[in-house]
Amino acid sequence: MVKSITANPQGQFSVEDYAVFTIMLGISTAIGVYFGFFQKKKNQTTEEYLLGGRKMKTFPIAISLIASQLSGVSIMSVPAEMYSYGAQYWIIAPTMILITMIINYIFVPVFYNNHITNCYQYLEDRFSPAVKKFVTFTYVLNIYLILPIFIFIPALAFSQVSGINIHLINGIVCGVCIFYTMLGGIKAVVWTDVVQGLIMFVSCFLVVVIGVAKIGGLSEVLDRAAAGNRLEIFDMTLDATTRQTFWTASVGNLFLWTGYLGLSQSCVQRIVSVPSMSHARAALWIFCAGFIVIMTLNCFTGIVIFAKYFDCDPIKVGLVQKADKLLPFFVQDVVGNLKGMPGVFISCVFSAGLSTMSANLNSLAGLIYEDYIRPFKLFKHTDASANTTMKVLILVSGVYCIAMGLIVEQFGHILQMVVTIASVTQGAVMGIFCLGMLWPWANKHGALWGSASSVIVMSWIIAGAQIAISNKEISYPPKPTSVDGCYEYGYNVTANDFPMLEAPQDEAEFSIYNISFVWYSTVGTFMVFLVGIPVSYFTGSQDLRNFRPKLISPLVHWLLPEEVLQNDFSLKAENEKLNPEPIKEWTFTAHEEEKYKERLGVIEQTL
After folding, report:
1. What is the mean pLDDT of residues 104-129?
2. 252/334 same-domain check
């Protein structure tokens, strides 16, 4: 009798699976309703709605960061990356330790010492309003380009295992996310992230354990992966055009993820919602540990998928259209006979997507209101009017994400597409914050020209690369897969039916368009420095005698003149005389007018 490659083909989503999935959505909705209607301290003020009164707990914030950073793109596309290109990408997991150190000791002290709640406000304080407006615009544009991908990926998984129209499920689940984000504000976002983060971990762990057991144990998985050249993680090739090497996965992702985690408003908003800098640092270290565990599980899932289909590639025989759909196919195949398990997995993927979407919707609403609506004074500003306006912005943004699903459906390799889109502006954002915090002599002209040059150059490079890819001048062929065992499943195919794909061999000189997409953020960051420092010099460097030391990272205070530091210390001492009670941690005011006074330079108590 001919075996079947899967005993649970598409469309076999059971009643139990639907029940599990519905419970997950129900819990998320209930949290939004609770924080929107029943909590004693409702989101009456803007600060409460966006920052939870700056009294959020460390552990929930850490779990929220994990859940929102490991989006549906990671859950679906990272295993696809492992299956197609091997384990090199896993290097991002230990690299997160260095990324967390950079954020904790360069960025976080500056944000807390300057009472920053909107990370782009720092750019106005350090440089000028024009710099802030430019970078804010690039962030908003970037998020609106990427957000539809984050929520579409879970719908892709659901469609693969259930057969339901992908756009129907995308609309339903986006609607749930919009509902609880509108009602509950940051508190609903964080606590749904906690629930969804736990679902992510449990489902990833169960899928890996059951998959390994069905294949024949850990040693069999590793043997098959090694035979298929999927375990190489120390490819030390220095060729920048190679898709993934040790250097791209570590150095390239260092710049990409540092900017994405430490300088994204959706993340900074949660980092500063805890009571003090020590709480923020603790939350980031907890995030780091959780990220490493989940990312390692996620990467290993791809290795397990390869071991399962090592002798009959489902893509080549047409069971799966592309690598990004392999994970739901694998889950349905391996655990589909266990009632409710496919539902747990789909809940995992949707949890990741919902976490990312809700966090970004919440931060976008606050950012757009403060920077693009409130300055025009279209109506009298009150906490009630501000909250209502932000809820409308969340609704409009959510509807946009649903509509954009029609375009995202046409994308090829999702992970590459997300990194490419993000890199248009991510390097500029990373570069301008580093320029401001690490180079005291940088001025507003250098910052503006540096960031603008970075966006222009990266747009040119990425556009050129995409044209080359469409003309098949650039390609990243996956590692070889086998169809030698497909006859056992009733597929009469041989390796000769699938010619080996090779990357185009260009004998011409090196082209900037050929560099790996992982390097885009790194190039963009250095462009800011290459342009920003000379422009600052030729337009008159920042006068350090009239400089506030707290605007740069404490790590480079040694670059400042001694008298500037002494003035800063004397001001602190004067404040201590006026306020003999020592302050152990900074307590933020709840009144927005006081925050505006701080921005105008009124000296407040510091840590």
Report:
1. 88
2. yes
CA 125/CA 13 separation, integer angstroms: 54
**How high does pLDDT run on average in the chain?**
78
Residues 146 and 246 in one domain: yes
Contact 397, 143 (CB under 8 A): no
Please report whether residue 291 resides in a domain.
Answer: yes
Residues 409, 383: contact at Cβ < 8 Å?
no
Asked whether 24 and 352 are in contact (CB, 8 A), the reply is no
In angstroms, what CA-CA distances link 67 with 32, 51, 249, 522?
17, 18, 21, 25
Predicted confidence at residue 11, as pLDDT, reads 45
The whole domain housing 577 covers 549-604
Cα atoms in the 13 Å half-sphere on the side-chain side of 299: 20
* 81 in any annotated domain: yes
Tell me: do 90 and 167 sit in the same domain: yes
- What is the CATH number for 360? 1.20.1730.10
Flag whether 499 is in a domain: no
Q: Are residues 420 and 569 in the same domain?
A: no
CA distance 284 to 111: 14
Owner of token pair 């071991």? 307
- Whether residue 273 is found in the same domain as residue 419: yes
> DSSP 3-state assignment of 244?
coil
Query: Are the C-beta atoms of residues 262 and 103 closer than 8 Å to each other?
Result: yes
Interatomic CA distance for residues 232 and 244, integer angstroms: 11
Domain co-membership, 142 together with 237? yes
Cα–Cα dist 461/502, whole Å: 23
Model pTM score: 0.79
More confident call, 449 vs 571: 449
What is the rounded distance in angstroms from the CA atom of residue 433 to the CA atom of residue 447?
A: 9
Whether 460 contacts 453, CB under 8 Å: no
Please state at what angle helix 166-215 crosses helix 326-335, rounded to 10 degrees: 60
Token pair for residue 448? Answer: 């503006």
Give residue 573's pLDDT band: very low, low, confident or very high (50, 70, 90). very low
Residue 76 lies in a domain: yes
Give me the pLDDT at residue 44, please: 58
Burial class (CB in 10 A: 0-12, 13-18, 19+), 24: buried
Q: Within this chain, do residues 307 and 424 fall inside the same structural domain, yes or no?
A: yes
Contact 246, 236 (CB under 8 A): yes
For residues 421 and 560, membership in a common domain is answered with: no
Name which of 359-368, 375-384, 393-402, 554-563 the model is least confident about: 375-384
Contacts of residue 175, defined as CB under 8 A and 6 or more positions apart, other chains included, come to 398, 402
Q: Do residues 553 and 101 touch, judged by C-beta distance below 8 A?
A: no
Rg (CA), the chain: 25
**Contact of 32 with 183, CB cutoff 8 Å:** yes
| Structural domains of the chain, count | 2
